Amino acid sequence: MTARMFDLPQGLEASAPPTARDGVRLLVAHAGGIEHSRFAHFASFLSPGDLVVVNTSGTLAAAVDGTRADGRPVTVHLSTALDDGDWVVEVRPAINATGPVFDAHPGDLIMLPDDIALVLHEPHPVGQRRLWRVRVGVDGAMPAYLARHGRPIRYSYVPEDHPLADYQTVFAREPGSAEMPSAGRPFTADLVTDLVTQGIGIAPITLHTGVSSQDAGEPPQPERFRVPEATARQVNMTRAWGGRVIAVGTTVTRALESAADDNGVVRERSGWTDLVLGPDRPTHVVSGLVTGWHAPGASHLRLLEAVAGADLVQRAYAEALRARYLWHEFGDSCLLLP
Fold first, then answer.
1. CA distance 318 to 258
2. pLDDT above 90 covers what percent of the chain?
3. Which CATH superfamily is domain 21-59+163-337 in?
4. What is the DSSP letter of 70?
5. Cβ distance 56 to 173 under 8 Å?
6. Fold of 63-149
7. What is the Cα–Cα distance from 230 to 308, expressed in whole angstroms?
8. Minimal CA–CA distance to 291: which of 235, 260, 332, 324?
9. Strand pairing of 333-337 and 25-30?
10. Contact yes or no for 313/301 (Cβ under 8 A)
11. How far apart are CA 118 and CA 170, in angstroms?
12. Which of 3, 11, 121, 211 could pair with 313 as two cysteines, CB 3.0-4.6 Å apart?
């Protein structure tokens, strides 16, 4: 088995939010071996002077019911807001969807609630048929429209709807993510207090995620991000003093590395990132990673290897499968400390 290609047994997909956010299991993988714990004890694996960097993006109710011109119902996943006001969307069958509709064409019309017309312009990016650039004729801000008519994006392994609050992290401040930056979900206010009282810093970035249902091997799409000047300064000071920079999630890793030069110096930056991390592009800044468990073939697995190396990631995944950790956004967690 490699970390990127493995079989995920039935029963290991978390199907509902856990009773306690910080009650999920935590696998800690480091050079000395692997330890099993609970996320409530996360702070005990860090040291004074370390810095934990979190994503403050909030999750949108990004799934909306629609109807195609021939009357067929669909679900539209609004993925990413573009600079010119267009959106990138994924169109899925309304029932028993395991992927997008593949018979969509430029010019197709989809009607949304409140008689809002959505017109497919072209695949975005070109060369595929899963994601589309569209113009949505909504008066006012799209988050307000989604708050009235949308619901959180949900895949088949979660059989029931759950409120949007279940898809928000304790750090969420700015709505903009199609799907929850789920590595931050197990954090609680008490856990954050534990970190601060132990001399462990916390710093924010913002990266708005798109839909995560890429085909196996498909790279992540460009995403909008912001690394504030204060966070850049904290990261640089932490590294200069010998502390570790612990990214909470692949989103934070991508944002920090997009704002860093080849020497690992981070500067304030905002805009779009198309950075793809992997063994051939290792991290310059991030030295530890909090992450959930990713599906076989997911591009995120290459990012994990960029942080921790292929061997440590493979050992962590083999142990998680053996110990029957739970996968996906409501599942268990991993802390990689190479």
1. 30
2. 85
3. QueA-like (3.40.1780.10)
4. T
5. yes
6. Thrombin, subunit H (2.40.10)
7. 26
8. 332
9. parallel
10. yes
11. 33
12. 3
Bridge-partner residues for 333, per DSSP? 26
**Numbered ranges of CATH 3.40.1780.10 in the chain:** 21-59+163-337
Residues shown for the chain: 338
Q: d(Cα 79, Cα 87) in Å, to the nearest integer?
A: 7
Any idea which of 1-10, 148-157, 241-250 has the lowest mean pLDDT?
1-10
Residue 241 exposure: Cα atoms within 13 Å on the Cβ side: 14
Contacts of 13 (CB under 8 A, 6+ apart): 157, 326, 327, 328, 331
What distance in Å separates the CA atoms of residue 35 and residue 335, rounded to the nearest whole number? 10
Question: Which residues make Cβ contacts (< 8 Å) with residue 269, sequence separation at least 6?
Answer: 225, 226, 227, 232, 258, 259
Instruction: Show the CA angle centred on residue 67, arms to residues 66 and 69, nearest 5°.
Output: 145
Q: Are 178 and 81 in contact (CB under 8 A)?
A: no
Residue-wise pLDDT for 280-331, tens only, equals: 999 999 999 999 999 888 889 999 999 999 999 999 999 999 999 999 999 9
> In angstroms, rounded to a whole number, what is the distance separating the alpha carbons of residues 252 and 264?
15
pLDDT over threshold 80, residue 62: yes
CB 235, CB 217: distance < 8 Å: no
Place of tokens 């708050």: 147
Strand 288-291 vs strand 333-337: parallel, antiparallel, or unpaired? antiparallel
How far is residue 37's CA from residue 316's CA, in Å, rounded to a whole number?
14
The helix (run of H) or strand (run of E) holding residue 73 is strand 73-81
Helices (H), 209-338: 229-240, 250-258, 300-308, 310-322
Cα dist from 110 to 14, 73, 124, 322, whole Å: 32, 9, 17, 45
Full-model pTM = 0.94
